[in-house]
Design brief:
The complex is a heterodimer of chains A (253) and B (128). With 253 residues, chain A is an alpha+beta fold. Helix content of chain A is 25%, strand content 15%. Chain A has a single domain, classed as Alpha-Beta Plaits. In chain A, a hairpin with a 5-residue loop joins strand 5 and strand 6. Chain A is elongated. In chain A, 31% of the residues are buried. With 128 residues, chain B is mainly α. Chain B folds into two domains: 33 residues, no CATH class; 94 residues, no CATH class. Chain B has seven helices and two strands. A two-stranded antiparallel ribbon of chain B has the order 1-2. Chain B is elongated and about 75 Å long. Classes of the chains: A alpha+beta (253), B mainly alpha (128). The interface between A and B is medium-sized, with 28 and 27 residues.
């Protein structure tokens, strides 16, 4: 076949156009690509928070703690040094420093405490691997896969909401809940506001377990929510708000 | 060259010794060993095709992990449009209930030690 200069340039030009068409075809065929779809219930437009009505909370009752710790495979190491806790109790005096007074009968009363799911979480800021992060619905969550156990977050959290697994926790879990993973040695853990239950449309395990209805959980961005009503009608205090962390656990004392 | 015979003989003996593992495995039939994976599922089809899963299950699982944990999306849409809950324990292990005969067998053969099950619960433990 004889090709003149003009014919050669034409074929060359068409060939180059062919290459240019490839990305266009890719874009047009994009519908066939495998993509994860957002779950039907998306996170946008939500801000989860909790109110704790301390006066309704019955002394000695551990229903919320037991429920949470059994659902999330939290080990009981039987020793306060190694303790792993997601929700626990602390004395009024200790969690509301500078707000106690000598004659307050509530001074020594245990109050339920958990991760505050802060608006401005210091643990997220210090995490070198971004294992701790804040979701768009306000939940401060941990990606255990990425945690290297450096404990910066534990130092940064002013509420002591985080625990390190100093030892393999599995032998210390009484009954493993197969629906939820355990953790491994060298990983920090904390309350995650039951993200796995929220994804199924359930409320957190501690709220469900509380017979006294002392714990109220809800979406602050939903104008008719029970939590909004409670926060509107009651005087609530938060733990150490002056630190600027914006805690989202509200206490009615 | 001095001592040609000794040197050549030495080289031959050396080559025999160094290639011994290859000969040993070829003649013993061990070279063709392929782990015999038991698939005991009721489902006919995995989330993606068999070949894709065989080659890319680790990438797929990593993608699932990141999507679920970091983005909060729990629904996987497969290339044929079917939807799955992205969960190792609830979706993968629901069908592949025989972890020891399926996951472990191949992982042991290729000498990889994924750490998934340090935390994720294997359904067998449900009974205990």
């Amino acid at each position: 076949m004889k090709t003149d200069r003009r014919g050669f340039l034409k074929i060359g030009g068409l060939g180059i156009l062919g290459f240019a068409a490839r990305p266009l075809v890719d874009v047009l065929l994009r519908g066939d690509l495998v993509e994860a779809s957002p779950a039907p219930d998306t996170l946008a437009g939500k801000r989860w928070a909790m109110a704790v009505n301390v006066s309704k909370c019955k002394e000695g009752c551990r229903d919320c703690i037991v429920a949470c710790h059994s659902v999330h495979n939290v080990p009981d190491l039987g020793n306060p040094k190694d303790e792993v806790k997601w929700i626990w109790t602390e004395s009024y005096k200790k969690i509301f420093p500078e707000q106690e007074q000598e004659f307050d009968a509530r001074g020594g009363k245990p109050v339920v405490v958990l991760c505050n799911h802060c608006d401005n979480p210091p643990c997220v800021r210090v995490c070198p691997t971004k294992a701790t992060f804040k979701r768009s619905d306000g939940i401060v969550m941990m990606d255990y896969h990425r945690c290297i156990g450096c404990r910066f977050c534990m130092a940064a959290c002013p509420y002591g909401s985080r625990s390190l697994n100093w030892r393999d926790p599995r032998p210390f879990i009484k009954k493993i809940n197969p629906e939820f993973p355990t953790r491994t040695r060298g990983v920090v853990e904390k309350c995650d506001f039951c993200v796995e239950r929220l994804a199924k449309g359930l409320i957190p395990a501690c709220v469900e377990a509380c017979k006294e209805k002392a714990l109220v959980f809800g979406n602050l961005k939903e104008s008719g929510a029970e939590i909004r009503e409670i926060l509107r009608a009651n005087h609530t205090i938060r733990r150490r708000p002056w630190l600027g962390t914006g805690p989202q656990i509200y206490y009615i004392v | 060259m001095y001592d040609t015979a000794k040197i050549v003989a030495g080289i031959i003996i050396f080559l025999c010794l160094i290639t011994f593992p290859i000969w040993y495995n070829v003649t013993g039939g061990k070279a063709e060993y392929v782990p015999d994976l038991k698939i005991v599922t009721q489902e006919k089809q995995c989330v993606e095709s068999k070949g894709y899963m065989r080659n890319n299950h680790m990438q797929l699982l990593n993608e699932w992990r990141n999507t679920v944990v970091r983005e909060g999306n729990r629904v996987y849409v497969a290339s044929d449009g079917r939807k799955y809950d992205m969960s190792l324990s609830r979706t993968c292990l629901k069908c592949h209930v025989n972890k020891a005969d399926f996951c472990d067998k191949c992982h042991n053969y290729v000498e990889v030690a994924p750490t998934c099950f340090n935390c994720h619960v294997v359904p067998e433990e449900k009974k205990s």
